[in-house]
């Protein structure tokens, strides 16, 4: 009988720890994305260093040019938008050609987004977390 009581107490303790940890994670994530914010975590495949630029209009209508430094090919962006927003990603701002292989358009949405870009083929970008981007991609496949 004593073993059963100890077992039940241990199980309850582990459940409480798991629930408590989940609440902490949800609280941290909600504070990161307050006020219609987006957070992009990305990976540039084929290049480890340098920078990448995100161009868009924020929730106030102000033009934003945000630059992220690559760290082993990974990068992060964070900003505020109120609705799905067209944005441009540029791998090298020295190029002015419209057909630049390191330039593409994506649709940002408030929330967490994941982006994967192949160096030299930005048009093959994969953005997860944006329903508008999913619809845009379906439209281009038709």
Question: What class would the helix/strand composition place it in?
Answer: alpha+beta
What is the total tally of β strands?
Answer: 8
Order of helices and strands: HEEEEEEEEH
| Residues in β-strands, percent | 35-45%
- Span of the ends, CA to CA: 67 Å
The general outline is: globular
Mean pLDDT: 79
Which percent bin holds the helix content? 25-40%
Strand order of the largest sheet: 4-1-7-8
The rounded Rg comes to 21 Å
Number of helices: 2
Quaternary structure type: single chain
**Low-confidence stretches at least 5 residues in length (pLDDT < 50)?**
5-11, 13-31
Major sheet characteristics: 4 strands, mixed
Topology diagram in text:
Blueprint: H1 2-32, E1 37-45, E2 51-57, E3 63-69, E4 74-80, E5 85-90, E6 103-108, E7 111-118, E8 126-128, H2 131-141
Parallel strand pairs: 1-7
Antiparallel strand pairs: 1-4, 2-3, 2-5, 5-6, 7-8
What does this protein structure show overall?
With 142 residues, this protein is α+β, with helices and mostly antiparallel strands. It is 30% helix and 37% strand. It has helices at residues 2-32, 131-141; strands at residues 37-45, 51-57, 63-69, 74-80, 85-90, 103-108, 111-118, 126-128. A four-stranded mixed sheet has the order 4-1-7-8, covered by helices on one side. A hairpin with a 5-residue loop joins strand 2 and strand 3 (63-69). The relative contact order is 0.16.
